[in-house]
Structure to design on (288 residues):
């Protein structure tokens, strides 16, 4: 008997979702997750997400294994997909339509803290991503003193000096602003950023072209997954970095290869809010 799964995507950032509510530990090992994510010999995905039972009074717990078997603290597109998955599971349990349960919000325990996604009546998912972490020790990075921010700091990568800003959304991000984001050789420069010595836990890297103060184009190299069509935590980090550098508004559309996300860094509570879609692709069983 295989393990049942449902595949979802958030702007092309795709995930295999598993109902793991009967156990506190993921039902797959990281090595098995790598096989599931293989796009030629497996199901194919950027990661496997497990819906685990609640901890400390939260609704559910989220764990995720990247396509390389590593475990990130959080995933913005992934948690939107998880929220949709949970609504679908609860609807099936109650023998009702998913739409009848909307709007619905959850408190999800992650390795980056508690996240609160809300599925709106129109199917869009808004996530309270919490407050960004800006100190070098919180990223973590050695680009500045532990108690200092990293804003427009020079970093040499592949023989070129880049001005980078670092933000943690529970996971590390290195953001650099460029004239033409399409011209970046992401497949060659991305790994060099990810594994640079100044990032002891590696890093996600975002290359950003500012079209207007409320509209930014983004390409991303994700730690543990490589080139992806979208990165939710990355889009949040990008907006924060743009505000810190004085080149974008506190609310903007971040255009990713897979589509747009609406991001706001609230002046009122300093929390970052992300709104975007999550779509079911197909369901099946795997015995890999």
């Amino acid at each position: 008997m295989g393990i049942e799964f449902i595949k979802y995507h958030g702007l092309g950032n795709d995930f295999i979702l598993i109902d793991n509510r009967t156990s506190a530990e993921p039902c797959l090992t990281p090595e098995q997750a790598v096989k599931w994510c293989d796009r030629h010999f497996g199901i194919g995905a950027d990661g496997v997400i497990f819906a685990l039972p609640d901890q400390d009074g939260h609704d559910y717990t989220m764990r995720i294994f990247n396509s390389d078997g590593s475990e990130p603290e959080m995933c913005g597109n992934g948690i939107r997909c998880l929220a949709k998955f949970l609504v679908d599971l609860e609807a099936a349990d109650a023998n009702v339509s998913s739409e009848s349960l909307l709007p619905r919000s959850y408190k999800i325990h992650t390795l980056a803290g508690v996240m609160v996604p809300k599925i709106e009546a129109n199917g869009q998912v808004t996530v309270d991503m919490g407050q960004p972490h800006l100190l070098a020790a919180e990223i973590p990075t050695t680009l500045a003193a532990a108690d200092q921010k990293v804003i427009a700091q020079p970093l040499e990568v592949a023989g070129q000096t880049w001005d980078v800003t670092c933000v943690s959304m529970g996971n590390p991000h290195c953001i650099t602003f460029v004239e033409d984001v399409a011209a970046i050789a992401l497949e060659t420069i991305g790994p060099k950023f990810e594994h640079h010595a100044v990032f002891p836990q590696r890093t996600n890297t975002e290359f950003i072209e500012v079209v207007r103060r409320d509209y930014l184009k983004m390409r991303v190299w994700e730690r543990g997954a490589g080139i992806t069509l979208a990165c939710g935590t990355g889009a949040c980090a990008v907006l924060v970095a743009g505000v810190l550098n004085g080149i974008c508004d506190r609310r903007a559309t971040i255009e990713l290869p897979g589509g747009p996300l609406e991001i706001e860094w609230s002046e009122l509570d300093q929390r970052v809010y992300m709104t975007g879609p999550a779509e079911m692709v197909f369901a099946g069983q795997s015995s890999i």
About this structure: Residues 76-94 form the longest helix (19 residues). The helical segments are 30-37, 76-94, 186-194, 232-244. The chain has a mean pLDDT of 97.
